[in-house]
Amino acid sequence: MVGATQTEVRRGKSETSVALIRRFSRRAKSTNIVRMMRKHRYYARAKSKNVGRKRALVGITRRNAYNMLVRLGKIDPTVRRGRRK
């Protein structure tokens, strides 16, 4: 991992666990780890053009199959199907 920062905190002899966590949080904040993690939290790599095209073809194929079943009378388009009740 490029640019990784490691933060290590060791507990003192008479230090409480709350103080240790507080000290770790302060050190992580000072090294900008928290800011970077929040910034990259919802990052999703962009899909390639080929993946987008394949998904579009799948959708077109499904719609065509559904429309064919409607034309053949096997599906009633007025009835709503789904998980909602």
Structure overview:
By secondary structure, this protein is mostly helical. It has two domains: 15-44; 47-77. It has three helices and no strands. The chain has helices at 17-30, 33-39, 49-72. The radius of gyration is 27 Å and the shape is elongated. The protein starts with 16 loop residues before the first helix and ends in a 13-residue tail after the last helix.
Which helices and strands appear, and what pairs or packs with what?
Layout: H1 17-30, H2 33-39, H3 49-72
> What is the gyration radius calculated from CA atoms?
27 Å
User: Which structural class fits the helix and strand makeup?
Assistant: mainly alpha
Mean of residue pLDDT values: 87
Fraction of helical residues: 40-55%
Number of DSSP strands? 0
Order of helices and strands: HHH
Strand content: under 5%
Number of domains: 2
**Terminus-to-terminus distance:** 47 Å
Largest sheet, if any? none
- Categorize the overall geometry: elongated
Unreliable residue stretches? none
**Count of DSSP helices?**
3
